[in-house]
Amino acid sequence: MRRDIYTEDHEAFRGLAREFIDKEIAPHYAEWEKAGQMPREVFEKLGALGILGVAIPPEYGGAGLRDYRYNAVLQEEAARALVTLSTVRTQLDVILPYFLEYADERQRERWFPGLAAGTLLTAIAMTEPGTGSDLAGMRTHAVRDGEDYLLSGAKTFITGGLLADLVIVVARTSTDPENRRAGLTLLVVEDGMPGFERGRVLDKMGCKVQDTVELSFDAVRVPVANRLGAEGEAFGYLGNNLSQERMTVAVGSVAQARAAIGATIDYVKERKAFGTPVASFQNTKFELAAMSAEVEAAQTMVDRAVLDLVEGELSGADAARVKLFTTETQGRVVDRCLQLFGGYGYMSEYPIARLYTDARVARIYAGTSEVMKVIIAKSLGL
């Protein structure tokens, strides 16, 4: 179906991203999967091309284009090549907006050039053991001590935490028994600060290139100068970026589902069963036709939401609707595609196996499908 959300500038960026992914990412992806991380030099190459600095103001080495569509293009091109840029996506779509919105001038001067160049890598530490999606229930805390905060606690499931130079930590700086959402603050912990430790790298079912770790903080002395925004206002800040965070999952889900269909079509045309191509069977045709219709519906939904996001009009409830629909669609589509591969679909050497295992987390992170339903129900007055 026709898509009209991109301009000539976006398509030029697409060409740049496609060339880089085909040359610098795809040939090495299997090796990085085994290593469990993407090398730092890849970020530096992305920075040199200007891909990491699209939204960063020009005075700090960026292009100053606050347009989420460039992020979406990058995801689509990665999926087309049957790879994911999970850590890059997290840095650009989830973490960078906090720096752009809440960093003061001194912080911008300190951090923005490195963020644009890919020499400063980031992570955000929200989730804690035992809290999951309940951010208001977090126990990591920070106590003011002169011009510093003393930060203590533990975080888990932290994407990019292994290589991160800067970690935005959500910590409780005050307690209000009547309002659990009050009193949360964003503190930027820097690599090498005493008391900041990286724990084990978590062994995940999928997303193998995305390093995911546990972090701990034992009376880490964080300067007040490293606080993002006002003390006690972090819950509101987190809510402001949730729509984009959920959209980045939705965009990836549709792009990866589309890639799964493409890979499956190629496979069933070549693979024979009972002496005839699998593509000639009516069941194969019907399955792929139905999946194609689902993905086109999801794409239309995503495209509308992307434009709303760019225009600042995407509501939290609509972002939840899009994430719920697209991630559930991705799960169904990739599962049915794998079935058409038969036994070979279960082999890791085939990209469909990776697409299958990578897809499962989409219904969990950035808010589970169940949480999305709660948000949507509230918008209905229920």
TrEMBL record:
Record-annotated Acyl-CoA dehydrogenase/oxidase N-terminal domain positions: 7-118
Catalytic activity field: a 2,3-saturated acyl-CoA + A = a 2,3-dehydroacyl-CoA + AH2
GO molecular function, one term: flavin adenine dinucleotide binding
InterPro entries per UniProt: Acyl-CoA_dehydrogenase, Acyl-CoA_DH_CS, Acyl-CoA_Oxase/DH_mid-dom, Acyl-CoA_Oxase/DH_mid-dom_sf, AcylCo_DH-like_C, AcylCo_DH/oxidase_C, AcylCoA_DH/ox_N, AcylCoA_DH/ox_N_sf
Domain Acyl-CoA oxidase/dehydrogenase middle: 123-220
Listed GO biological process terms: fatty acid beta-oxidation using acyl-CoA dehydrogenase
Similarity field: Belongs to the acyl-CoA dehydrogenase family.
Name of the protein described by the UniProt record: Acyl-[acyl-carrier-protein] dehydrogenase MbtN
The organism of origin for this protein: Nocardia fluminea
